[in-house]
Amino acid sequence: MNFTLDLLLIPLAYLIGSISFAVVVSRCMNLPSPHSYGSGNPGATNVLRTGNKKAAVLTLIGDALKGYLAVMLSRMILGDQSLTATLGSWVLCGVVIAVFLGHIFPLFHGFKGGKGVATACGILFGINVILGAATLGTWIIVATFMRYSSLAALAAAIFGPIYFVFLFGFQPMAIALLIVCLLLIWRHRSNIKNLMNGTEGRLGSKKKESP
């Protein structure tokens, strides 16, 4: 495959990322649009506010899988499964950024997307299982002890690129992951404000939502 055709993987990744599973699952299960209640964020945490745990789990899995599949499909099409080639591929770096941008600015859903935590996790597992597991472990540890999902997401976002450099050195993929990290932090800017004000909801706590 020539380089011009390889570049088509980037818009393809964006389209894959643009599938908002919070919206798709909610429609399939006759639930209200995730944009219409709670935080208005089309993600698993907001879908859980409907009380439908199955829908939330399906949303989480779907959003993670699209990040994973975009990376793995691109690796297969590029024709080299070696880790060294993966980390040095600027096309794959573009795929990583594109699928994440698709999630937060989805073409199919009026560019109103989620915050990207599950999709970023899927991307990391697509790059390397150890990298994904280490970053997911960071989220679990922070969420368990601090009881803030948003804080856990921010910690995982920051440590993801650090783990990558520690494991594989400074490669082009490190830049792509840094961009994803910064976008994820930007998407959590309201949560950061709430954390600083002491008004962020903790995991497992009951919070009244505006009608």
Helix proportion range = 55-70%
Distance from first to last alpha carbon: 53 Å
Q: For the report, how would you describe the main beta sheet?
A: none
* Element-by-element helix/strand order: HHHHHHHHHHHH
Domains, number? 1
- Supply the number of helical segments: 12
β content, as a range? under 5%
Structural class: mainly alpha
What is the mean pLDDT?
A: 88
Shape: globular
Low-confidence stretches: 207-211
Number of strands: 0
Rg is 17 Å
Overview of this protein structure:
The chain has 211 residues and is mainly alpha-helical. It has one domain (3-197). The protein is 69% helix and 0% strand. Helix 2 (9-17) packs parallel to helix 7 (90-104) and helix 7 (90-104) runs parallel beside helix 11 (172-187). The protein is globular. The model is unreliable at 207-211 (pLDDT under 50).
Question: In short, what is this structure?
Answer:
With 211 residues, the protein is an all-alpha fold. The protein is built from twelve helices and no strands.
Write the layout of secondary structure elements.
Layout: H1 3-7, H2 9-17, H3 21-28, H4 44-47, H5 53-78, H6 83-87, H7 90-104, H8 117-127, H9 129-146, H10 149-168, H11 172-187, H12 189-197
Task: Summarize this structure as a short list of keywords or feature phrases.
mainly alpha, 0% strand, 211 residues, 69% helix, globular, 12 helices
